[in-house]
Design a protein that fits this description.
By secondary structure, this protein is α/β, with parallel strands linked by helices. The protein is built from 13 helices and ten strands. It has a single domain, classed as NADP-dependent oxidoreductase domain (TIM Barrel).
């Protein structure tokens, strides 16, 4: 396992990050209903991940019903005493509880969310606290000042953002710099061979400003795992079988072309499609750590194979060319004239 600095910070994290979205069996009210793993299995996955060198765990208050994922991790910390072996990341912003302030990134809400996450996680600190999506109803300065206070108090060590538009991220970084506030060190965003839109604005921005990128859904909801086949229904019980609306977004000619290239490289490298798909991301220069989920020890060990896989330049080109996407204006215009944007 290799380790990289967490964006512009000094702390080092494994280049693979274990995502906690599936920790705990959520009830029918949760968007994770039917695709989680029970508490015992989740704890076994966490322990095995540490044995394999994964020291970075990411979750969110909304994962599972009533903070279920955070509660499972907190119970694991208390049971096995491994808190100090983990760089712990969680998120706030989306709906929790009831009332007029049940969502958002106001100062009023951030302070409550942080305290509640600390209690569920049974810890005295959150190593990386991330806003799950920008909040257009709250001034960015208000959000940043609240996060800065949490950093000053020691309850949060570093801050990051997720699902931010590039213009809002740049404005946030400028406000932090000019007003002496804690600044985002990472951007967590959807990024995979299937979804490369981040490369238009966010990747150049993060490169220029020193932020690390934490890709989520690196296997495109499991599509890049290799278990799906064109002109066939998803395997019964698979995530995309249970989420038919998402399946329809993947069942497209470009994506099958990508999957064919992934399978070809996997066969050449004698490994799995999942490992190839993750390894492609790990070799993107601005990526700090790639977040993957695992509902079993077997899935965990399959995904961690990516850390040992060094794709050749030719294999990287095969994958990059197969997943080429339409840049649109003005990026294609600039690339046509100058070779880059």
């Amino acid at each position: 396992m290799k380790y990289k600095k967490l964006g512009g910070s000094g702390v080092k994290v494994s280049e693979l990050c274990l995502g906690g979205m599936t920790f705990g069996e959520a009830d029918e009210k949760s968007f994770m209903h039917t695709i989680g793993s029970d508490e015992k299995t989740s704890m076994a996955v966490l322990n095995r991940a540490l044995e394999l060198g994964v020291n970075f765990v990411d979750t969110a208050d909304v994962y599972g019903q009533d903070g279920l994922s955070e509660r499972v991790i907190g119970a694991w910390f208390e049971r096995d005493g491994r808190r100090d072996e983990v760089v712990l990341a969680t998120k706030f912003r989306f709906t929790m509880g009831a009332g007029a302030n049940r969502s958002g990134a106001s100062r009023y809400r951030i302070m409550r969310c942080a305290e509640q996450s600390l209690k569920r996680l049974r810890t005295d600190r959150i190593d990386l606290y991330q806003i799950h999506m920008q909040d257009l109803d709250t001034p960015e300065e208000e959000t940043l000042r609240a996060l800065d206070d949490l950093v000053t108090s020691g309850k949060v060590l570093y801050i990051g953002c997720s699902n931010y538009a590039a213009y809002r991220l740049m404005d946030s970084l400028w406000q932090s710099r000019t007003k002496g506030l804690a600044s985002f060190v990472t951007l967590q965003a959807e990024y995979s061979l299937v979804t490369r839109d981040l490369e238009r604005e966010h990747v150049p921005l993060c490169r220029a400003q020193g932020l690390g990128i934490l890709p989520w859904s690196p296997l495109a909801g499991g599509f890049l795992s290799g278990k799906y086949h064109q002109h066939e229904a998803p395997p019964a019980g698979a995530r995309l079988d249970k989420m038919q609306s998402r399946w329809l977004t993947f069942d497209r000619e470009r994506n099958w072309k990508i999957l064919d290239a992934v399978r070809a490289v996997a066969a050449e490298a004698n490994t799995t499609p999942a490992a190839v798909s993750l390894a492609w991301l790990l070799q993107q220069p601005q990526v700090t750590s790639t977040i993957f989920g695992a509902r079993s020890i077997e899935q965990l060990e399959d995904n961690v194979k990516a850390a040992e896989l060094a794709l050749t330049a030719a294999q990287m080109k095969t994958l990059t060319d197969a997943s080429d996407f339409e840049l649109g204006y003005p990026y294609a215009f600039m690339k046509g004239l100058q070779g880059a944007w």
